[in-house]
């Protein structure tokens, strides 16, 4: 939820939510009049940005006094069973590796992005994506 306020007396606030950072000119017909907290829908499972544009007017949209942009950056939604060992699900490759024991097979149900050094366990393990063995 986002809350918008303006201290200037008699000011109306209008807002517009978009996926792009391109400048959007205020328009009373396409923007929404602010009347309370705004929900921003984060609908891309891979993560991304949403932009909330807000503009103020004192004359019913004839003149716009100030326009501001707020960027909301969100991350990829974690996959609950990104990696599975037997019947135990893990949200990350690193958590699954920490739990892996000799003879385990790690099944990858999501992309794995290694952003830091990963230490492989001393155990002899297999890593699979679907039916194809990777290591």
What does this structure look like?
Helix content is 5%, strand content 33%. By secondary structure, the chain is mainly β. Strand 5 and strand 6 form a beta hairpin. The longest helix is centred in the C-terminal third of the chain and has 7 residues, at 93-99. The mean pLDDT is 88.
Helix percentage = under 10%
Shape: rod-shaped
Strand % is: 25-35%
Low-confidence stretches: none
Radius of gyration: 24 Å
In what order do the strands lie side by side in the largest sheet?
6-5-7-8-9
Descriptive key words:
135 residues; five-stranded mixed sheet; 33% strand; 5% helix; rod-shaped; single chain; mainly beta
How are the SSEs placed, and which strands pair?
Elements: E1 12-18, E2 32-33, E3 48-57, E4 66-74, E5 83-85, E6 88-90, H1 93-99, E7 105-108, E8 126-129, E9 132-133
Structure summarized in a few sentences:
With 135 residues, the protein is mainly beta. The protein has one helix at residues 93-99; strands spanning 12-18, 32-33, 48-57, 66-74, 83-85, 88-90, 105-108, 126-129, 132-133.
